[in-house]
Amino acid sequence: MSALHIKKGATRHSAYNLRPTFSDVQERHTIAVLVENEPGVLARVIGLFSGRGYNIESLTVAEVDHTGHLSRITIVTTGTPQVIEQIKAQLGRIVPVHEVHDLTVEGPSVERELAIIKVVGAGDKRVEALRLADIFRASVVDSTLNSFIFEITGAPDKIDAFADLMRPLGLVEIARTGVAALLRGD
Predict the structure, then answer these.
(1) What's the predicted TM-score (pTM) here?
(2) At 155, phi and psi to the nearest 5?
(3) CATH superfamily ID and name for 27-106
(4) Which residues form the signal peptide (predicted)?
(5) Of 21, 69, 112, 155, which sits most exposed with the smallest number of CB within 10 A?
């Protein structure tokens, strides 16, 4: 069939017009890595990211098995699907790494973060800060005549929303733990 007889909108298969199937869209992924709890392991994992120019949006690390000396590293990163696959493959090749799980693709997961937020203000701003804290279920963990320190836990976007509302009310400092995440279900 000649090119003149192809219907409008039909795709002609040819070795010359093949398009790559890879996506250039940046995706956010939460990756959990189970590693030996020994000196230098975290530096090797972080070195993999920095050496290749990958960004880490969030990083949490803690020992999860005292008898087995295992730690869990939870990393939130952004990249194209190809970059995410490359990160997972390279993490799996690091010797003290036992498991690599991409929680974003393995199923629904629960993500939580803790933040403490200092707000300085008086009068109506102080009252409004307390009202918003109640709505967001944030706790007051320290109070002076001019300031509050709130503790809030939840999904990262909940903490972002709370911080955004507190900025005009006198937010002066924020500390965040980073994301802790687990797959839902069995």
Answers:
(1) 0.78
(2) -65, 150
(3) ACT domain (3.30.70.260)
(4) none
(5) 21
84 and 25 Cβ atoms separated by less than 8 Å:
no
Class of domain 109-183: alpha beta
CA distance 66 to 84: 30
Contact 133, 116 (CB under 8 A): no
Question: Which residue, chain included where needed, has tokens 């087995």?
Answer: 68
The single residue listed with the structure tokens 């392991």 is 41
- Each residue of 2-51: pLDDT tens digit? 444 444 444 444 445 444 455 688 999 999 999 999 999 999 999 999 99
DSSP per-residue letters across 24-38: ---EEEEEEEEEE--
Q: How many angstroms separate the CA atoms of 32 and 48, rounded? A: 15
Q: Domain boundaries in the chain?
A: 27-106, 109-183
Half-sphere exposure of 167 (CA within 13 A, CB side): 6
How confident is the model at residue 95, as a pLDDT? Answer: 87
Mean pLDDT of 100-121: 96
65 φ/ψ angles, rounded to the nearest 5 degrees:
-140, 100
> What would the two tokens of residue 48 be?
């993999």
